[in-house]
Amino acid sequence: MSFPISAGLLDSMVLAVVSREDTYGYEITQTMRKALDVSESTLYPVLKRLQKSQMLETYDKEYMGRNRRYYHVTTKGAAQLSDYRSEWLDHKQKVDSILLNDTADNTLTKNKEEEELLPQEA
């Protein structure tokens, strides 16, 4: 079974992939396929939408004798990605509490235990 993917989730995932390093469409598709079944024909409209919204910029770069269009996250795109990540963590916690029978109290306890296990800064 697979879960439906919303436009917002696709946007956030593409921004996350491109934020790691400037990259081109095929490579973005291959990275995205590690998490979900998506085709290039699905992804290119997402890239265009993000570019039109000024969250991505493009530039051409020669690679092995041919030009590739590379995507780069703008300042606006980085800010939006930060918002998406915050919203995702909140959403994920709520879904986990139901789907995994994980209560908020249980999550707080786990987070506190994890903090105690991490080395403290001097």
Question: Could you characterize the architecture of this molecule?
Answer:
With 122 residues, this protein is of the alpha+beta class. It has one domain (7-117): Orthogonal Bundle (Arc Repressor Mutant, subunit A). Helix content is 61%, strand content 15%. It has helices spanning 7-20, 25-32, 40-52, 75-99, 104-117; strands at 23-24, 56-63, 66-73. It has a three-stranded antiparallel β-sheet. It starts with 6 loop residues before the first helix and ends in a 5-residue tail after the last helix.
Describe this structure in a few short sentences:
61% of the residues lie in helices and 15% in strands. It is an alpha+beta fold and 122 residues long.
Give the helix/strand layout:
Blueprint lengths: L6 H14 L2 E2 H8 L7 H13 L3 E8 L2 E8 L1 H25 L4 H14 L5
Antiparallel strand pairs: 1-3, 2-3
Helix pairs in contact: 1-3, 1-4, 2-3
Number of strands: 3
**Strand order in the sheet with the most strands:** 1-3-2
Kindly provide the radius of gyration, computed on alpha-carbon positions and rounded to a whole number of angstroms: 18 Å
Measured distance between first and last alpha carbons = 47 Å
Question: What shape does the CA trace take?
Answer: elongated
In percent, how helical is the residue content? 55-70%
Q: What is the annotated CATH architecture?
A: Orthogonal Bundle
CATH top level assignment: Mainly Alpha
Which runs of at least 5 residues are low in confidence (pLDDT < 50)?
none
